[in-house]
Structures are given as structure tokens and as C-alpha cells.
Amino acid sequence: MRCKICGGGGGGEGEGVCDRHAEAERRLREHFKVWTERTGLGWAEYLEAILKNERTGILVKEAASYLLQNGR
Q1: 3-class DSSP string for 19-59
Q2: What is the phi/psi pair of residue 18, to 5°?
Q3: Please, which residues have CB within 8 angstroms of residue 17's CB and are 6 or more apart in sequence?
Q4: CA distance to 1, 2, 25, 30, 32, per residue, from 10 (Å)
Q5: Rounded to a whole number, what is the distance in angstroms from the first to the last CA of the chain?
Q6: pLDDT band, very low/low/confident/very high, at 7 (cuts 50, 70, 90)
Q7: Contact at 8 Å (CB) between 65 and 29?
Q8: CA-CA distances (angstroms) from residue 36 to 25, 46, 49?
Q9: pTM for the whole thing?
Q10: Side-chain-side CA neighbours of residue 38 (13 Å)
Q11: Are 4 and 63 spatial neighbours (Cβ–Cβ below 8 Å)?
Q12: Separation between Cα atoms, residue 37 and residue 65, nearest integer Å
């Protein structure tokens, strides 16, 4: 199966993304719990903040952009 984010191969866990983007999404979801407790940001606002953060890695930004665009 091809990754819906990068088009690469490899099999995420049935989500249609490669292992690297699956891990990035897992970390985004895990860290959201901390961010929402500290900032009160909702999911979409959190993803937008991640995209604007210059210290965010490319894989995480790609996953965040995909999640934001696809309402996930």
C-alpha cells in the first residue's frame, strides 16, 4: 500500500500511511493531550500551531497537514 501522505511504500497500521507518518501521527495525538491541558487549543488549532512552529520536523508537519486537510 502506498502512503497517502508521501506516496512511499511501507505499511502503517491499516491507516494508509507509511510507518514513519504513522509514528508522526501517533506522536501528534499523544502530545495533543498535553497541549490542550496547557493551552486549551482544540485539535484544528493545535495542528495549525504545529505547522507554524519552525522547530517542528518535516514528517510531523506533513502528518499534521494531512490530518488538517482531511478532518481527522
Answers
A1: HHHHHHHHHHHHHHHHHHHHHCCCHHHHHHHHHHCCCCCHH
A2: -70, 170
A3: 3, 4, 5, 25, 63, 66
A4: 7, 7, 15, 22, 26
A5: 20
A6: confident
A7: no
A8: 16, 8, 12
A9: 0.85
A10: 6
A11: no
A12: 22
User: Is residue 72 scored above 90 in pLDDT?
Assistant: no
- DSSP-based three-state secondary structure for 15: coil
Burial class from Cβ neighbours inside 10 Å (0-12, 13-18, 19+) for residue 23 reads middle
Which residue type occupies 24? Answer: A
Contact present, 24 and 59 (Cβ < 8 Å): yes
CA distances from 66 to 5, 37, 40, 43, 56 (A): 7, 24, 22, 13, 15
For the cut 80, the answer to whether the pLDDT of residue 15 exceeds it is no
Closest CA to 6 of 68, 43, 61: 61
Q: Three cell numbers at 5?
A: 501522505
